[in-house]
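ok so i was messing around last nite and threw this chain in just to see what happens. nothing serious, just curious
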Amino acid sequence: MKISTRGRYAIRVMLDLAEHNQGEYIPLMDIARRQEISEKYLEAIISTFSKNGLLVALRGKGGGYKLAKSPEEYTIGSILKLAEGSLAPVACLEDVPNKCPRAAECKTLSMWEGLYKLIDEYFDGITLQDLLESGTDGGDYVI
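result:
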């Protein structure tokens, strides 16, 4: 499994919004400047997040984006799944139920399922708030 640039940027954007969460809308250009990510690239990420209820958007003067919930209500798993799609380590685990014609006799399936469970539990066990509290002092999590 490899987290793409989109997934990493999605976490950075959400962390930026959480860190600057004063209840006001934050302009996209401010996030882009602080994170050193192009506005155009961020628009695609933020658009997906606001369409799916993770962010609240306001157009026009004084507009921008803000979190729809508090930072402790967002798991890194939910952010990554929305940005990346599935976090499954192998394609056959993307479908539920598994539609692989070899699933019944696959000797490696349980291994991949175990890895997938670890990935899900790990990322679903970390919130934006956890990352904010870990700071840059070499805390428990590294992005």
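not much to say yet. The CA atoms of residues 20 and 26 lie 8 Å apart.
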